[in-house]
Amino acid sequence: MFKSVDPNVKFPQLEEEVLAWWDANNIVAKALASGEKPFVFYEGPPTANGRPGLHHTISRSFKDVILRYRSMQGYRIIGRREGWDTHGLPVEIEIEKKLGFSGKPDIERFGIAEFNRLCRESVWEYIQEWKAFTKRIAFWLSEDAYITYENDYIESTWWIFRQLWDRGLLFRDYKVTMHCPRCGTSLSDHEVSLGARDDVDDPSVYVKFRVTGFTTPPPAVDGTLNGAFLVAWTTTPWTLPANVALAVKHDAEYVEVEHQGERLVMAAALAQSVLPADSFTVLRHFRGNDLVGLRYEPLFRGVPGDGDTVDWETTYRVIADEIVSLDDGTGIVHIAPAYGDLEVGRKHGLPTLFSVGLDGKVLPQFSELGFAGKFFKEADPDITRNLKARGLLLRSGRVRHYYPFCWRCGTPLLYYAKRSWYIRTTAFKADLVANNQQIHWVPEHIRDGRFGNWLENNIDWAISRERYWGTPIPIWTNADGSHMVCIGSLAELEAKVGRSLRDLDLHRPYIDEVVWEDPQHGLMRRIPDVADCWFDSGSMPVAQWHYPFEHREIFEMAHPADYICEAVDQTRGWFYTLHAVSTLLFDRPAFKNVICLGHILDEHGIKMSKSKGNVIEPEEVISAYGVDALRWYLFTAAPPGNARRFSMALVSESMRKFLLTLWNTYAFFVTYANLDQWQPNNGRTAELQPIDRWALAALNQLVQQVTAAFEDYDVYTAANAIEHFVDELSNWYVRRNRRRFWKSEGDADKEAAYQTLYTCLVTVAKLAAPFTPFVSEVMYRNLVAERDPSAPESVHLARWPQVDQTLLDPQLVADTEALLTAVSLGRAARKQANLKVRQPLSELWLRASTTSVLNGVRRFEAELRDELNVKAVRYLDASSTVVEYRLKPNLRLVGKKFGKLVPALTAALRDLSGAAARAAAQAVEAGQPLRLPVDGQDVELLPDEVLVESSAPEGYAVAEADGMLVALNTTVTEELRLEGAARDLVRYVQDARKSAGLAISDRIHLFLNSADETGLLTATLARYRDYISSETLSVELTVGNPPADAYTETDEFGDGMVTVGIVKATV
RNA sequence: GGGCGUAUAGCUCAGCAGGUUAGAGCGCGAUCCUGAUAAGAUCGAGGUCGGUGGUUCGAGUCCACCUACGCCCA
Predict the structure, then answer these.
(1) Quick one: which of A51, A469, A583, A960 has the most CB atoms within 10 Å?
(2) Is A655 exposed, middle or buried, given 0-12, 13-18 or 19+ CB atoms closer than 10 A?
(3) What is the spatial distance between Cα A54 and Cα A646, in angstroms, rounded to a whole number?
(4) What is the per-residue pLDDT across A433-466, written as a single tens digit (0 to 9) for each?
(5) What φ, ψ does residue A833 adopt, rounded to 5°?
(6) Are A577 and A538 within 8 A, CB to CB?
(7) What's the distance, Cα to Cα, between the start and end of chain A in Å?
(8) Closest C-alpha among A259, A322, A313 to residue A288
(9) Nearest nt (C1') to A569 (CA)?
(10) For residue range A885-942, what is the model confidence (pLDDT) as tens digits?
(11) Spatial separation of the C-alpha atoms in residues A695 and A702, rounded to whole Å
């Protein structure tokens, strides 16, 4: 006996029971240890200082589904372990917030040791929730986690640094980075984008630079512009003291104009927008190139960087550069390399001058001007006032534009040329691009689109952060920076300092205390920087195994990964850092297959965020519908790469549509199997009916499809194929075969039905196991494992189903499709004629677009008659004269062949009618070519190239689709009417039995009465009394009013009503 | 400003070597079927397939431009 199945299943509760069983039987550990051939997975590490959300559910579900599939195929999954990302600015900012800090000085005062201790603790703040979440969503990972802050992990990243160092790929340079003066650090591009706004109100000033002369060789304009003003535009007056040059567009047209007694120079195209109309007259025209080499009087003297010597001869001149655009401004661009134009400065040999320090305050050198020490944005008005007083301000106003802010603290950022450490990834651009070509991306467009594009525009990776909680960069230097070493292992460092460092925490500040005296170069100290935390996660293929210090063989087997999966925002994040580290170190990709997920939006298409209050917690969904429903929704609702709108209602729909359908089919099977005491492998013979063969053919086709889709990492297609099959299994196979299960004879036909349905359910349970691990487990346990001690105890330890080639039958599947189309058309025709299916009809005419479709229907004619309740099916061919034929070209074929002739050809075919059309239809049906004149030409059409349609025969109800036509004879004879009436009565009684709460096997005393339609009732009973009695298990049938204690219903009958009364019979 | 993606029914989404009447599910209304079903079937209302132009005998599908949104970059 199977365990009985509750049709009112509560999935969340069911899932809790499964979780308990997995625990009690150690299933997770067994699954993790199973398999032989390796399949390598990399877990992208989250940080546990925030709660798990829906976006974690989707990525973890897509990770899990592939791993379960591979595991069922007998693979041993390598790297199926937790990983935690623990370093980085976000962690530090959390702690700063808690302590009420406002920048690095606060941290230094507080003490780095204590600060880092708090950071280390805080990354585990929600670890319990993460553990519970991971378990509840059935994401199976070993708890043997890799943790990026552990010494072993850090040591591996040091090894990587050393590899890069030895190959000259680590370098130090000025580089403009986005700098947050409050946090005191550079921000990654990723971080900058988080805080940028495009509606920032800033000053907009037009500034005049007085021309004083020219360089050698002289510009084309020579000295004629001496005393004139070059007009430049800026929204950052605070950068003006750092100005070193003015740039023009080399081929653009410039003008010298007379304006209020002064001569001004700007781009011709922009003069109108800079100066009021009619306020100026154009004196002369130049090309941009003509101006190159002019010298001008600086507005202020900028301050050279520490240790830099400046050749002032190179400054304060006009250059030409591509960065100049004529979209806005004046066509003359103020260049301040320190605050953004470093590349331009370098190209033209300009020095880098500063006006503002790293703290965001104007340098003390400007104290005599009155704005030294002011925060840079607050210095803007002072600088503008100063210029105005000196007559160097043409115009000032305000503008709304894009400006970046620190994503955590909201402070305006500055572009700032700082000395930082870089990895020279640009040297490997070609390799990065080539290795990317080996990766299978889902969706495909990411490879050459977003990711490929990003690689094409590769820039060197800024790797250093002037922060505290991170992997310390293992570079030690002497005081003047003339000697540097990169340490690649703990042992190497121990050798340098001559003591054991085994118990040392490798983080700051402890690592900073590790110094040694170099006999030639003096005291060696570590540089203060820590690594970009993306470097940590990108190093995980190496560092998770403590390679090369340990586990060399695992690493070598486990690189590259067969599969990873994260959301699309990781293209510039983890996907890139993995790829970059792998390419630079090993010249191969880090992963072979990747599913790149779209984001989950709320039901209005807006990103979920705490501040908007539109966040749906996974727990809310899971407790309402269960994990299987949520997972199934995530797999089937949209292709994985698409952004998706999420709502509870959609998960509920997913549950009803798939899980409940599957569950009810399963419940049906178990109910009857138990009544019949049916067991699998019982040795009885089965006589398979065509519909059984169809189910098995469709099932094996499904196995084939799902397997192929999985091999292509196409989870969406795989899941939807299963959903489609389950729908057909339930709504066609089971519905059509109910009587075979409940009939009393235990013959070979019944055995065939049981075997077929059993096979389908067991196979579907296995196919669905990677997607919906809980319900699959329940079904498999009850149907297989609890009956058969030799079977694996869990569906997740079972083997993936194999295709039985002998059962595949594409013809049978196609024929059934044809049948289903015919059934659907027949119902449509009935609806049109307002004839319910219970009313039998005499005949149905059918014609199909092709003979093979027609034969398909013919094969299942009995089913068609039964489904549509008709006595006979007749087939229309071109010889029948009851219908009018219409002909159309098969455009798909004809279009290519006849091109421009198509419209005329279509018209010529359409114009055929009557006998001509019938003759043409007959020719096509007989496989003969059709000749007809088109546009004066004699055209020959092959039979395939013509589509034949037909009108409805007279007096028939007709429905038509895809070339198939079904026509019902709508004449209801008296005989048919009585049969229909009998079926009505049976239906009413069955309904009444159900409403009265009778058991299926209860016998009844039936009362029927019909005041208005006595004639019909009498006539019906005269003919169908026995049929009605036996169908409804009536031991007695009385015409007349039921007794008072009877259960009574009244229904429509003929043109009147009938009263149905039932009393349970005592047998 | 640039790149990538998305835009199809009230909602969630399919569709595409360019081809005949643009689909599914949900929701709504109606009818039907049903002794597994919270199910199913049929019909109906509901579509300028984001917009404009182009290529073509023919464009939701290809091309160009534009708009909105998302992500990423500057």
Answers:
(1) A469
(2) buried
(3) 10
(4) 999 999 999 888 888 888 988 888 788 888 988 8
(5) -85, 0
(6) yes
(7) 28
(8) A322
(9) B71
(10) 878 888 888 887 887 888 888 888 888 877 888 888 888 877 788 888 887 778 888 8
(11) 10
Secondary structure in 3-state letters for A115-136:
HHHHHHHHCCCCHHHHHHHHHH
Q: Is the distance from CB of A1008 to CB of A1042 less than 8 angstroms?
A: no
User: What is the CA A657 to C1' B27 distance in angstroms?
Assistant: 15
Report residues 266-305 of A contacting strand B, contact meaning Cβ closer than 7 Å. none
Give the distance, in angstroms, between residue A721 CA and nucleotide B25 C1'.
15
Asked if strand B contacts A942 at the CB level, meaning under 7 A, the answer is no
* CA A238/CA A91 separation, integer angstroms: 32
- What is the C-alpha to C-alpha distance for residues A369 and A354, in angstroms, rounded to an integer? 15
Query: Does A45 qualify as catalytic in the annotation?
Result: yes
8 Å CB contact between A617 and A651: no
What is the DSSP pairing of strand A464-465 with strand A516-518?
A: unpaired
Sheet strands (E) in A775-858: 841-847
Give the other-Cβ count within 10 Å of A683's Cβ: 5
Q: What predicted TM-score, i.e. pTM, was given to this entire model? A: 0.83
Give this complex's ipTM: 0.87
DSSP 8-state code for residue A607: B
- Which one is catalytic: A64, A84, A85, A628? A85
For strand B, the positions having any atom within 7 A of a protein Cβ are: 1, 3-6, 11-14, 17, 19-21, 25-26, 31-43, 56-58, 69-74
A677 touches strand B (CB under 7 A): no
Burial of A16 (0-12, 13-18, 19+ CB in 10 A): middle
Q: Is the CB of A55 under 7 A from strand B?
A: no
Q: State whether the beta carbon of A620 lies below 7 angstroms from any atom of strand B.
A: no
Closest CA to A382 of A367, A360, A402, A401: A367
- H or E stretch covering A225: none
Tell me whether the omega of the peptide bond preceding residue A304 falls within 30 degrees of 0, making it cis. Answer: no
